[in-house]
Amino acid sequence: MKSNIVTLSLILALFSVSSCEDVLEEVPLDFVSPENFYTNATEARIAAYSLYNTLVNRNSYNVALWKLNDYATNALDGGANNSNIQLDEFTYDPNFGELGYWNEAYQAILRVNIILENVPDINMDETEKNGILAEARAIRAWHYFNLIRLFGDVPLRTEVQITRSEAANNPRLNKEIIYDLIFEDLAFAENNLPLDYPSSEVGRATQGAAKTMLAIVHLTRGEFQQARDKAQEVMNLGVYELMADYRDVYDPDTKNNAEHILSAQYQKFRVGAWFESILSPAGSVPCGFNQGTVSREWYDEFPDTYRKEISVMTTFVSDAGDSVEYDRPHVKKYIAWSQLDRGGCFSGENNFPILRYAEVLLIFAEAENEVAGSTPAAYEAINAVRKRARTWPDGTEDVEALPDLAGLSQDEFRDAVYRERELELCFEAHGWFDLVRTGRLIEVNQAAGKTNVSETHLLYPVPQSAIDLNTALTQNPGYN
Amino acid sequence: MHMFNNLTNNGWVIFTYLWFVILPCYGQELASLPTDYSPTNLQYQDEQTATLESLLIAYEKKYQVSIIFNSDEIGQQKVSKLIDDSSLDSSLKSLLNPIGLTFKKIDDNVYVVKRAKKRQKSVKKVERSRTILSANSPPARVKRLRANPRPHKVEMVQTISGRVTDLSTDEPLPGVNILAKGTTTGTVTDINGNYRLTVADEVTTLVFSSIGYETLEEVISGRSTVNLALTPDIQSLEEVVVVGYGSVKRRDLTGSVASISSEEIQAVPVASPEQAIQGRVPGVQVTQASAAPGGGVSIRIRGSNSVNAGNEPLYVIDGFPVYSDNTLSNVQGRATRVTPNALASINPNDIESIEVLKDASATAIYGARGANGVVLITTKRGKSGRNVVNLNSYVGVQEVRNQYDLLNGSQFAEFANEAVNNIPEPLPPLYEVPSAVDTDWQNEVFRTGVVQNHSLSFSGGDGNTNYLVSGEYYNEEGVVRGSQFERYSFRFNLDKKVSERVSFGNSLTLSRSDNDIRDILANTLLALPNVPIYDSEGNYFLNTDPALIIGSGSRLDNPLAVANEVTNELLTTRALGNIYGEVKILEGLTAKVLIGGDLIYNKENGYTPQSTLAGLDLGGSAIQGTVENISWLNENTLNYQNSWNEKHSINVVVGHTFQRQNLEAYNLRRTQFPTDATSYYDISAGAEDQNISSRAFQFTLNSYLGRINYTLKDRYLFTFTARADGSSKFGEGRKYGFFPSGALAWRVSDEPFFQNQELLSNLKLRTSYGITGNQEIPPYRSLNRLRAGRVIIGQEAVTSYNPANELPNPELGWEQTTQFDVGLDIGLFNNRLNFTADYYHKLTDDLLFQVPVPANTGFRFIWENIGQIENKGFELSLNSNNLVGDFRWSTSANVSVNDNRVIELAQDDTQLFATLFPNTPGNVNNIVLVEEGAPLGSFYTYVFDGIWQSQDEIDAAGTMPNALPGDERYRDINEDGVINGDDRMITGSGLPRILYGFTNDFAYKNFELSLFFQGVAQADILNITRQGLELLDGDANVSTAALDRWIGPGTSNLVPRATSGGSPGPLLSDKYIEDGSFLRLRTLTFAYNLPTADLGWSWISQARFYFTGQNLLTFTDYQGIDPEVNAGGQAQLLQGFDQWSYPMQKRYIFGVNLTF
């Protein structure tokens, strides 16, 4: 009898196919699901934090952006490193390995678009909510701006959802359309971002950052009046000032100081800076990669000031007094003096400056000069930068090497600003941008003996890997 | 009797409990069943009485026994049939006792009914003998003694004894079944081949049978001693083949199933069971993902079906399905070329047989996981009647098969000086020429390693309780210093028959392994030859001179320091086992419950001390991590078998299975240790908390399965199989898949019209068609995911949530493979020559494809069901007993050809790039292409076209304006006047087309010689190691090809100039695609069997001494260390890559195998 019950039970059990979907439901364990995230102010803030990875990653300011900029000048030498030499000598092609910013920027844009789609529905303080939306749009604008500068026309993405076939046929749009988005984003950002953050939130984009971005975008487009005005607005905010000691701009102990407007934020062990290891010579920091070889001519012509002492070197003297001599000059400004005891390669403590007040002063000087000539306001701005540059910590000044400027024609003043930017902002991912913007890329590099440089190099090639996957993409002229 | 009833009842309780409690989903439905529901199946319910004979015959059928009685004398008595029928014993007792009869059980399945003796209380002990009737055999036809007018008396017997030997070797044969023909009385031979059997007088013939031997009938003719020699049957059709959820005789197989016996497995001393399959089975490709000790293996059965989902077969170890994903045992979750092997915890000595299920008929019972084929591993179990002790022990040495030819110290110094001079702003010479130091790092790092294995097992049983326990120790020192694999394993298999109806048992293996991993081939080959091993103080020389840091700036560590000083070990503790309970519900109907678990605990320990460059930079670096990977299984199956009218035979299996896997892992890492003394043991001694991470996942499979085997007239065989699988990995509403298959076979040689010939002893035609599936992708791919990341805000690390780099696909569903197979089995000359041929055609649809999406989406991949792949091919295998007698020679050979082709991709794509290969030197992007019409995972490269000899040549061609004389030239494939991405083409495929293997076994008296060759033809290898060793930038040592480098016009058209950079770097071209075909003598074994019987040593039944050489000869044109290489491991798209792979070794082993 028992056997019969069991038999029947077995057969029933086997064939009564009831809903067993429940046991197969996937429960997220080590990740969160966007469908039930973005529910409150804290989660909106966490979402905003995701924007900043895209500034600190290897293919962003940590490595790629300064490489693309600073080897393409007469300042940094390619040394004996193949990819650096290709940048230095303008022999790269679409397979070149340092074009990863393309991917990085679009990853950033995706994160912005996710925030713009999800955060508006969160029930939270409207000011903070708009601040987060503004922050996201400022970051999106900045990445699009970098993309345009590096590659010219690029695909536009303002929504999260996309099918693969759409993505694979996503053509490059005229950069003017993208500039429209940039201006729209930055206008929203400057109106909704806070002036500053509590110390626990330092590092996020501020109103000053949005205005500085606008100033640079306008300057790049030759819209000098608007560039001047935006720079003036930043100066009028009363938030920023030059650090008295040039070394403090880079020293980890004084990071996020009054001169910093937007920086890529690093911390040893957690999110380590790579540029220090790569640019510093062996024997200086624990893991120097010797890739910051500076052209001898450029080094010799660097005015002999405190700023030169901090920026470049031929001899490294540690705080303990040990010294190492090098055959060739090297980059010095990123040596994290106060934090040399860190753990290994690629674990630097210093921040990478993206926007800083010295640049705002120089933008103002340049734009003012273009709009109204070398006015006293223009001189005041550039001379503030020069005075800080020549002042040693003990207060002595190398006035002879770097005197205050005066009595220059508009053209002379323009050249003086260009030169000042070259020295003040060296190795800070400005070199190639500035040379292209001011139409001097070919001239300056040919003067340095780099015969390959041509019109082609006013844009970088679209990465071959991107064209492989998105057949609607065309290559920039000269790279085919 | 009472005790049996109790046990039986308890068995029911436990069994019912399992069904109710463990069956997911059904608990409620079962609980609502009325408890008094009691169907009946006795057909003569309405009558109160019957004849004793009719009842006894009914019992014979019901319980599959013979009941011997005198039908004239007692058979016609009328008896009441309202008796306790809960068991045969109680039925007989209550039936016979009231009418003055009693019964005696003289064998497991034989009862004798006789008149009760009044004073007899104790049953006289009957000499134990064993019936050949196994539980699975169809009921034997019982000859009754009713025609005999005399009352049957069991005392009328004859006793026969004798010895059974092997005809070819003269050795005694233990375990031979001997059956008195026409009865169920029988016995088996003992360890020395002797038997003694008491049978009824009427018996005239004895039937001798043993697996692996031809069955022989011998007429007794009044003899009391019958000695006999059995002829070995090379491929016995009576051989039982394990298939999913059951077993069948080979003659009844409808599917394509290959078996490997324990003898074949033990013939190749290997560390891990999958390696034993290599070259043995047609259509099965086994490649070492890593030749490192404990390294991984990758298997492809009948080609590659899938792009990104797993392509490895499903392993079923004693009924427990395991997908061998080597990356899961990797604690760090990082790609390593020394992939730990997920199956390396199984002792090959414990394996009874390996069955490889290839076609849909065989694999469909594993439905969702059957598409890549199934490998069933059955471990040894105790056999009745024998207590056997087996010791298998071997010791050997191994050494590298081959080395690269690299520059010596002076050659390198000269070359590197030239490289830094050949740049736009030349550097002064870096090194002195000639070099005072000349270090051969390969000689320093490679060594001769010792391999040893000791395995001891005890097994036996009395028919009711059978056991096997074994223990094993394996230790392999790798040919790279510091690499080692050590394993302890224990096994306990038990089968207990509680009663006629209830049995239970278990399989359990516990193992612990310690794998010291050294992934240092790149470091060893690239290390500068002009630096010393030790500095002046006797410490390891570390190259910290700032002046020598050029190029990429990555400094090369001292490889010997890394080999000797670094700790990098993976410890694996694994318990894999199951318990089962089996109940015979009705005649022919059996229910089985199996509960199993696979508990894997991996621990990784690492420490890099300051005596290495890496450790010096980091101030010492420690890692600890674990992966806890636990899989639970519950299977409930019903098996029904019956036959009737001598024409129809049926076997049905239905069941439900539920499997759930949980993985949890964590990982700790710190640097900056004040001292190396505490190694990784005290991680808190390092600086601050850094890099702490953890991860977890869960997945579930819920399945219903069924199979019907139907045999008509013993020669028309039909199999229908279906399985419905639900997997949690797929999207809502897409989780369940249905996988049916059907097969039929025709044993032509059993047809009456075939009986009048001698040539063909077996001819069978088989065909099958069915659908199987694949679900081996990571979980959660249908979900939108945000993953925690770190970012510095407020000068502190905070958590952000970032979108995963994969677009979610809620529509994600099953990948399906439809397979057609047609096969032919032929046996000639009484099966001395056997031949099997199969043709198959597989179409895989809805491929689980991790498609790269354009970066402008912000995502990198999406998992989609797109495309179609075809695999078709044929397999031939041959077994031949060439010579028998004193000098024996047998040959087995197999060959298979597989053609793989991508039929179509997504609608608007004709080609898609595969995931990039990480860490590839040079400017290498998108080197693997999936294109319609081409084999899966084709190499997509530029085409090498010599060396630019002069600037004039460069200017004239104009295709590579930035090149300089001495740079590599590439062909302008599309002839558009410029070299760019459009000039790449498919230049090779890493999928081998032809696989083959052949074995020749020779024996003369007590000596044996076995030669096993294995080969691969029509295969390409992309030799990225060689590309790295011909990258002439002066950063690192290079191969001697550099001696022929271009130094001026006309000096070389093959090897470019030495330069640290300046022109677009060398592109990946077909220059590094090589022919990977090879033929190798995989094993050579020479053995001597001590004639223990002749020596009169009855205490030992076997003593075998052997020498085995592995990989002694290899014939290949491949330029790398070894053509058997697969740096991509199990990753389908990265097959045929050689990238700094751990070097393959030659092995020399001496061993002994003793059986007591």
Q: Which SSEs are present, and which pair or pack?
A:
The complex is a heterodimer of chains A (480) and B (1156).
Chain A: H1 2-15, H2 41-56, H3 58-62, H4 64-70, H5 82-89, H6 101-118, H7 126-151, H8 164-167, H9 175-192, H10 207-220, H11 224-236, E1 260-264, H12 275-279, H13 296-301, H14 306-311, E2 312-317, E3 323-331, E4 352-356, H15 357-372, H16 376-390, H17 410-424, H18 431-437, H19 441-447, H20 464-469
Antiparallel strand pairs in A: 1-4, 2-3
Chain B: H1 2-22, H2 27-31, E1 49-51, H3 52-63, E2 66-68, H4 71-74, E3 78-80, H5 88-96, E4 101-107, E5 110-115, E6 157-166, E7 177-180, E8 186-188, E9 194-200, E10 205-209, E11 216-219, E12 228-230, E13 240-243, E14 246-249, E15 257-261, H6 262-267, E16 284-288, E17 297-301, E18 314-317, E19 320-323, E20 351-357, H7 360-363, E21 374-379, E22 388-400, H8 409-421, H9 441-445, E23 449-461, E24 465-477, E25 484-497, E26 502-516, H10 521-526, H11 559-565, E27 567-586, E28 589-608, H12 613-618, E29 621-644, E30 648-671, E31 690-712, E32 716-727, E33 736-747, E34 760-774, E35 786-793, E36 796-803, E37 806-807, E38 815-828, E39 833-845, E40 848-852, E41 861-865, E42 868-883, E43 887-904, E44 911-913, E45 928-931, E46 938-941, E47 944-947, H13 951-957, E48 968-970, E49 985-989, E50 994-1004, E51 1007-1017, E52 1020-1023, H14 1024-1029, E53 1073-1075, E54 1078-1089, E55 1102-1116, E56 1137-1138, E57 1145-1155
Parallel strand pairs in B: 2-5, 6-12, 18-21, 37-41, 52-56
Antiparallel strand pairs in B: 1-3, 4-5, 6-9, 7-8, 7-10, 10-11, 13-14, 15-20, 16-17, 18-19, 20-21, 22-23, 22-57, 23-24, 24-25, 25-26, 26-27, 27-28, 28-29, 29-30, 30-31, 31-32, 32-33, 33-34, 34-38, 35-36, 38-39, 39-42, 40-41, 42-43, 43-50, 44-45, 45-46, 46-49, 47-48, 50-51, 51-54, 52-53, 54-55, 55-57
